Amino acid sequence: MTDRYEGSFYGRRKGKPLSPRREALMETELPRLGLDLNAPAPADLRDLFEAEVKSVCLEVGFGGGEHLLHRARTNPDIGFIGIEPFVGSMAKAVTAVVGEGMKNVRLYDDDAINVLDWLPEASLDLAYQLYPDPWPKKRHWKRRFINEQNLDRYARALKPGCEFRFASDIDTYVDWTLRHCRDHAAFAWTAETASDWKTPWDGWPGTRYEAKAIREGRVGRYLTFLRL
């Protein structure tokens, strides 16, 4: 099976209709908070943010935003780029960022590969992909975001010596990610003991997807890969 896949790596984009307030915020505030990929990326990604930040992190597919917003609140001196194509989740994030006056968050509501290709080489200090859609049926595995080409994208955008962090409760996707990262020359798995991949990272707030997995009897795995 080839890793190459030309379609989207996410499913549906719309769910329940937005409230009038959130609809208005999406129309007025997302353009301000969103990345303009028609313009060249700044050589220093810290220039994307209204706040003075010391480093920049990326979260691909932030879902309900629990992790992204928690990290942004507790680390106001770090810039966060959050990507999420699902409209309801993006609206929730926009509402929180605007309502709390966060100046260290930028957002993008389409395919993550567009951002990864737009970012300057060696510009990110950390990248997260947490509880992504596992596409559990084997015939859909080609739609999993972790593949050789997208790891190339992560590797290009991450600074050497920085981390790519991945979490999932689906064993086949955990094994899939370990295999693909093991086979990629730019990444090394950092785990030395079982607790390293069974324990979330410091400051972990949990996510709705993690909570759902726990309710259904599944256990999350937390993988950290070093960009060599």
Automatic annotation (TrEMBL):
Residues covered by region (Disordered): 1-21
Binding residues annotated for substrate, in chain numbering: 137, 169, 207-210
Keywords assigned by UniProt, alphabetized: Methyltransferase, S-adenosyl-L-methionine, Transferase, tRNA processing
Gene3D superfamilies: Vaccinia Virus protein VP39
Pathway named in the protein's UniProt entry: tRNA modification; N(7)-methylguanine-tRNA biosynthesis
Record PROSITE patterns: SAM_MT_TRMB
The reaction(s) this protein catalyses: guanosine(46) in tRNA + S-adenosyl-L-methionine = N(7)-methylguanosine(46) in tRNA + S-adenosyl-L-homocysteine
EC number in record: 2.1.1.33
Binding positions (S-adenosyl-L-methionine): 59, 84, 111, 133
Functional description taken from the UniProt entry: Catalyzes the formation of N(7)-methylguanine at position 46 (m7G46) in tRNA.
Family in the record: Belongs to the class I-like SAM-binding methyltransferase superfamily. TrmB family.
HAMAP family in alphabetical order: tRNA_methyltr_TrmB (MF_01057)
Protein name, per record: tRNA (guanine-N(7)-)-methyltransferase
